[in-house]
Design brief:
The chain is α/β, with parallel strands linked by helices and 306 residues long. The chain folds into two domains: 6-245, Metallo-beta-lactamase, Chain A, CATH 3.60.15; 247-306. Helix content is 35%, strand content 18%. It is globular, with a radius of gyration of 19 Å.
């Protein structure tokens, strides 16, 4: 049973379990000492709205702890590991990532060999097809990224699954499931059913959806939203931005439905995809002032439209 209301969980963001470090480091750095409790067994290191930093998640059972996302590169991975040890001491470590972008996945190299890496088959394929190319793109963005990702490689999976995998941490069961292709091919969600906490990755959050993969599908994204909505989550911890609730799912469904409806109509009218992007982006601005991500969604919806 959840002891905290959703509101209490959100307020907890202002009350870290330990005092934050006195000196804040610049760049995509996971901040040690800022871990907050989300529910009885779920915790998070908030991203503090820092670009290139994820909301790192933890689920702690009697026998094991699951870490969700790692930060970018070994230095961040070490911080995430140290926070896991504070929460779980010497308990067995499991690791899963919401997707394979470097700030979520390429800190895994800092974890010990006996940590168990869990990946969907879709995520494994994505790493093989384009993982290191994506890492190189992130390296090229700044000197800090290049330094953090020096020598970084994707950790091989110890456990793989197709659609879903259930993990028993000892008194706490966790559902891990494949949600791509949405933001990426290998989107992965994590749900703690006993506490109705969902770690949604980039599939549902405050910022508009980003279609980061050429294989991303608007219709599949909608199906994934239906899937996580059916779980009836009370608390949603997204990959980035503030912790929220199922309203994130509703907002994404509303936005994508609007984009799909208009893209389909314009395609039937004989408009090109570029014309559709221009028209729909202009229409969206009144309700969505930041339309930087709109083109990807429109392009995907137009491509799929009959």
């Amino acid at each position: 049973m959840i002891r905290r209301t959703v509101l209490a969980a959100l307020v907890a963001l202002a009350a870290p379990l330990t005092a934050p470090a006195s000196a804040q480091q610049a760049g995509p750095i996971v901040r040690a000492g800022t871990t907050i409790q989300v529910s009885d067994h779920a915790f998070a290191i908030p991203d503090n709205m820092t670009p290139g930093v994820p909301n790192v998640g933890y689920v702690v059972g009697d026998k094991a702890i699951l870490v969700i996302d790692t930060g970018m590169g070994a230095p961040n991975g070490k911080t995430v590991l140290e926070e896991a040890r504070k929460l779980g001491a010497t308990k067995k470590l499991y690791l899963v990532t919401t997707h394979v972008h470097p700030e979520h996945d390429l800190g895994a190299m800092a974890f010990p060999p006996d940590a168990t890496m869990i990946r969907s088959h879709a995520q494994v394929r994505e790493i093989a097809e384009e993982g290191m190319r994506t890492a190189d793109i992130f390296r090229s963005r700044s000197d800090v990224n290049r330094q953090l990702l020096d020598g970084a490689e994707f950790r091989k999976a110890d456990i793989t699954f197709d659609n879903a995998y259930e993990l028993d941490l000892g008194g706490v069961k966790v559902q891990i499931f494949s949600l791509g292709p949405a933001h990426t091919q290998g989107d992965t969600g994590v749900f703690v059913p006993g506490e109705r906490v969902l770690f949604s990755g980039d599939v549902a959050m405050k910022a508009l959806p980003a279609f980061a993969s050429g294989k991303a599908s608007a219709s599949y994204w909608q199906a994934s939203l239906d899937r996580i909505d059916a779980l009836n989550p009370a608390i949603v911890v997204p990959s980035h931005g503030p912790i929220g609730d199922a309203g994130y799912i509703t907002a994404y469904r509303t936005y994508l439905t609007r984009v799909q409806t208009r893209a389909s109509a314009l395609k039937r009218e004989g408009k090109t995809v570029e014309q559709a992007i221009e028209s729909i982006t202009a229409e969206l601005k009144a309700d969505y002032p930041d339309t930087a991500r709109a083109a990807g969604a429109i392009r995907a919806a137009y491509t799929e439209a009959k």
